[in-house]
Amino acid sequence: MVEVVVAIPTFRRPKGLARLLAALAALETEAKVTVLVADNDAEGHDGLDLCTRLRNEGYCWPLESIVVAERGIAQARNALTDHILAHLPCDFVAMLDDDEWPEPGWLEGFLKVQRQTRADALHGAILRAFETEPEHWARACHGVAPLRDRTGPLAMIDSTGNVLVRRSCFEALEKPCFDPEFALSGGEDRDFFERLRRQGRRFAWADEAVVYAWVPSSRARFGWILQRAYRTGNSDMRVFLKHEQRLGDYAQELLKIAGAFFVYLPLSLVPIRSRSADALCKLCRAAGKAAAIFGHRYNEYATVHGG
User: Fold this and answer.
1) For 163-220, what is each residue's pLDDT tens digit?
2) What is the residue-wise DSSP string for the chain?
3) Which of 268, 285, 157, 180 is closest to 228 using CA atoms?
4) Domains of the chain from N-terminus onward
5) Cis ω on the peptide bond leading into residue 104 (within 30° of 0)?
6) Which residues have CB under 8 Å from 196's CB, separation 6+?
7) In the chain, is it the N or the C terminus that has fewer CB atoms within a 10 Å radius of its CB?
8) Are 179 and 94 spatial neighbours (Cβ–Cβ below 8 Å)?
9) What are the tens digits of pLDDT across the range 26-75?
């Protein structure tokens, strides 16, 4: 029987965590599942308290919870992986965020594609559930649009919001697995997968492994969408600069940034909201990359969205 640990970092989102744990309780799977939650709020520890209550009520899966005192998404992810490697034997680690929840067939979807592709790490589909509907022209923007792709081999994985990873991937990486330098900015997940890519690990997309992500009103605003694009560019460039690159790679990145300003600045002024919105997002992403080159770090996760 395949053994899977579902690893969940949480910070001050007790409603979202409760929704996620309820969805995990409804999983339809033949796998042996353990759920591990890392509460990154040592003072309030609402996540820890919720897990304690569910355990006492007879939660269907083994449910463990730990408190991570040092603030940061990388610190929470490292605490999860360290605990798993030390205490929880398993074949795979599935990672979900506390604002997500899976369909009943989510895990079996992952395991089916993993058997087909023999991938070391897989990313699944993410659909959105909105507190308030964004304007139609904004629904195609990154962070609001659904994440879907064709099932099969994948060149790269960018995030840990709905992934399945072989345990051996964590065992083989130099510790910490997630770089604390990205604690409040995000990007620790892209850095993690970049390190796996450089080891020759194989990736795949599993579109059958579907989760839903809650989008609160604060994240449906176009201002937040632009901030997200800026942060993504900023953290992606910081990951790029961290790793040794060929001279041609540096030149290519600089050309991409310059080209984005040349192409998308005029398009951002076009009086078609969908087209100008997409252009503004690409401009903000390029601006985030340029800012990272000059040492600026945007800490998106200093603010909590949703409950």
Assistant:
1) 999 999 999 999 999 999 988 788 999 999 999 999 999 999 999 999 999 999 888 8
2) --EEEEEEEESS-HHHHHHHHHHHHT---SSEEEEEEEE--TTT-HHHHHHHHHHHTT-SS-EEEEE--S-SHHHHHHHHHHHHHHH---SEEEE--TTEEE-TTHHHHHHHHHHHH--SEEEEEEEEEESSPPPGGGTTSTTTS-B---SEEES-----TTEEEEHHHHHHSPSPSS-GGGTTT--HHHHHHHHHHHTT--EEEEEEEEEEEEE-HHHHSHHHHHHHHHHHHHHHHHHHHHS---HHHHHHHHHHHHHHHHHHHHHTTSS-HHHHHHHHHHHHHHHHHHHHHTT----GGGS----
3) 285
4) 3-220 (3.90.550.10), 222-302 (no CATH)
5) no
6) 120, 121, 169, 173, 203
7) N
8) no
9) 999 999 999 999 999 999 999 999 999 999 999 999 999 999 999 999 99
The structure tokens 């594609």 sit at: 113
